[in-house]
């Protein structure tokens, strides 16, 4: 993960899926490639719907790429997006959220500095998913915002395993 909260104007985006969301992955990969804010789309997912690799594997790989600075953001996909978000959140320094409405999507970045958006093919239609992904690229976390102190608490706990005495 990049050690700064600076968000680039142009993104390297990872996309990860299991066999439950191959069609949505293909659709969103095309949406991302057509977006002028995206300079690269890197696929961490399964090859096709016959590849039954467990969903945590591609999701963790995408989250590790964020942690390592190889990509700026990632979209992780599955049946619901829930397990995919949980998996990505296991990587230190990475924050993932399932966001299926515009307000939650906005707050995932502006309030929580999430780098990973999780969606489920079984619960979100393709047009909504495309809108969410394109809207999501427009949000940047402001490290001077009131939310920055809250994100710092999460980051500190993640690093130390305890809340500071100031909290």
UniProtKB/TrEMBL annotation:
The keyword Isomerase applies. One of its GO terms (molecular function) is intramolecular oxidoreductase activity, interconverting aldoses and ketoses. Keywords: Isomerase. InterPro entries: RpiB_LacA_LacB (IPR003500), RpiB_LacA_LacB_sf (IPR036569), SPI_LacAB/RpiB (IPR051812). It holds the Pfam family LacAB_rpiB. GO terms for biological process: carbohydrate metabolic process. It comes from the Bacteria. Belongs to the LacAB/RpiB family. This is D-erythrulose-4-phosphate isomerase 1. It comes from Microlunatus endophyticus.
């Amino acid at each position: 993960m990049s050690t700064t909260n600076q968000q680039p104007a142009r993104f390297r985006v990872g996309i990860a899926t299991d066999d439950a969301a191959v069609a949505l992955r293909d659709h969103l990969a095309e949406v991302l490639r057509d977006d002028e804010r995206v300079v690269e789309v890197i696929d961490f997912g399964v090859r096709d719907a016959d590849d039954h690799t467990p969903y945590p594997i591609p999701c963790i790989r995408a989250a590790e790429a964020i942690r390592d600075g190889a990509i700026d953001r990632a979209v992780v996909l599955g049946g619901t997006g829930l397990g995919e978000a949980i998996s990505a959140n296991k990587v230190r320094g990475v924050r993932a959220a399932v966001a299926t409405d515009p307000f939650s999507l906005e707050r995932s970045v502006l309030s929580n500095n999430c780098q990973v958006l999780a969606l489920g093919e079984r619960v979100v239609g393709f047009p909504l998913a495309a809108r969410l992904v394109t809207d999501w690229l427009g949000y940047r976390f402001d490290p001077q915002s009131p939310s920055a102190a809250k994100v710092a608490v999460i980051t500190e706990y993640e690093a130390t395993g305890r809340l500071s005495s100031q909290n």
